[in-house]
Specification:
Order of helices and strands: EHEEEEHEHEHHEHEEHEHEHEHEHEHHH
Number of domains: 2
Largest sheet: 7 strands, parallel
CATH superfamily of the largest domain: Glycogen Phosphorylase B
CATH architecture of the largest domain: 3-Layer(aba) Sandwich
Structural class: alpha/beta
Strand order of the largest sheet: 3-2-1-6-7-8-9
Number of helices: 14
Shape: globular
CATH topology of the largest domain: Rossmann fold
Number of strands: 15
Length: 397
């Protein structure tokens, strides 16, 4: 039985290759989760890897004082289309050495070679230490890989993911569809559903729109090919060519460059979209929220999302969303109610969805109200309490 008296006695070793100032969905989720746990009195220590890659603005309101963060030197960082692989021997060995001082070790991000090595080594050396994994990423099991590239299929056929999943004590899925897919690999009893969360300061009381002539669109995410930004640009180009004119549309893109910005800028120039599209780069969180408040709709045209936190953030602002039919988006977005789900990699589908808002200005109000109501289900406090309950149940057993 667990003899601790309160959450304040709980010690969690959080492990994530990426953490602010590197900005991506995983790093921000880990930050908000760690901050929320600390607010409940939990002692949180964060292990991460130093990275010169994808440096971006460290938001002025990201206070790390109550999170003991240790950054280990990276040896290499392999870059691929879908994800990046920072490697660090000290990250692995020091985490294993430190785990005896903590009640639970919680690893974030998969597939990551550094995390796979850490998990397999830890379960050999520290067999009784509760170990949790939140994959977050493109390492989705079959049937999501039925149309995958040969390289990614081989990765699964090698059997490494199965060994990782059966080594951890619990896998956290961040969406209902993800839970089903991971359950196929390691059994549903090993998988818990805890969606990612949106902090309180994102939420509004009611949707607000400026009702201007133009449709104001926001994209939030890393500037990387897998986020599908090229399909959004092609959709904007298609709408403009129908005769609606550049003055009817404005697209603002927010997020750090992860090696794809030069391609995007060249595409904007080739399509003649310089007057319609603004690339703002990474912004501090208050500035990002300002643009979410400013827009009429957020578009996330990703090739893959395990959750899609920009969707939940926009919905918390009372804004409708357009998203591709990824695992995460299908769990978040209610098609025709809180926004629209469109085919992956099809600019025309995005254009058609955007045109709905151009032809029916009242639609954004109707969907915005539904989106705000839906977003309340993904408040960060629900996420934190879900993790606390999971940690306690693992320790009790």
């Amino acid at each position: 039985m667990n003899d601790r008296e309160s959450d304040a006695d709980l010690k969690i070793l959080m492990v994530s290759p990426f953490f602010p100032p590197v900005v991506n969905g995983v790093s921000l989720h880990v930050y908000h989760l760690a901050k929320g746990l600390a607010a409940h009195g939990v002692h949180v220590r964060l292990h991460t890897i130093k990275s010169s890659l994808a440096k971006s603005v460290l938001d002025s309101d990201l206070k790390l004082d109550n999170i003991h963060t240790v950054s280990f030197k990276g040896l290499l960082n392999f870059i691929g289309q879908w994800n990046q692989q920072p490697l660090s021997l000290s990250y692995v060995m020091e985490t294993i050495a430190a785990c005896d001082d903590f009640d639970v070790v919680h690893v974030h991000d998969f597939p990551k070679v550094c995390n796979e090595i850490l998990i397999l080594m830890m379960k050999k050396l520290k067999t009784k230490k509760p170990l949790v994994l939140t994959p977050h990423a493109a390492g989705m099991p079959s049937p999501a890989y039925r149309n995958a590239t040969t390289k990614r299929r081989i990765y699964w056929y090698l059997g490494v993911p199965q060994r990782v999943f059966t080594s951890v004590d619990r896998i956290i899925a961040v969406s209902s569809l993800e839970r089903e897919l991971f359950g196929e690999v390691c059994g549903t009893n090993r998988v818990s559903l805890i969606p990612e969360g949106v902090p309180s300061h994102y939420f509004v009381d009611a949707p607000v729109f400026a009702d201007e002539e133009k449709l104001k669109i926001v994209f939030v995410g890393r500037i990387v090919e897998r986020k599908g930004i090229k399909y959004l640009l092609q959709a904007i180009d298609e709408i403009i060519k129908t005769g609606h004119g550049q003055h009817k549309l404005e697209l603002v893109c927010i997020g750090p460059d992860w090696g794809y910005l030069s391609t995007v800028l060249r595409m904007i120039d080739d399509l003649g979209l310089n007057n319609a599209v603004k690339m703002l780069g990474p912004l501090p969180e208050p500035e990002k929220i300002k643009y979410l408040s400013w827009c009429d709709v957020l578009v996330l045209p990703s090739l893959f999302e395990s959750f899609g936190i920009p969707l939940a953030e926009a919905m918390a602002q009372g804004k409708p969303v357009i998203a591709t039919e990824t695992v995460g988006s299908r769990s978040l977005v209610r098609h025709g109610e809180t926004g629209f789900l469109v085919k992956i990699g099809e600019p025309h589908s995005i254009a058609e969805a955007l045109m709905r808002f151009i032809h029916d200005p009242e639609l954004k109000y109707q969907m915005g109200r539904a989106a705000l109501k839906r977003a309340s289900e993904f408040h960060i406090e629900n996420t934190v309490k879900g993790h606390l309950h999971l940690y306690e149940s693992l320790l009790a057993n």
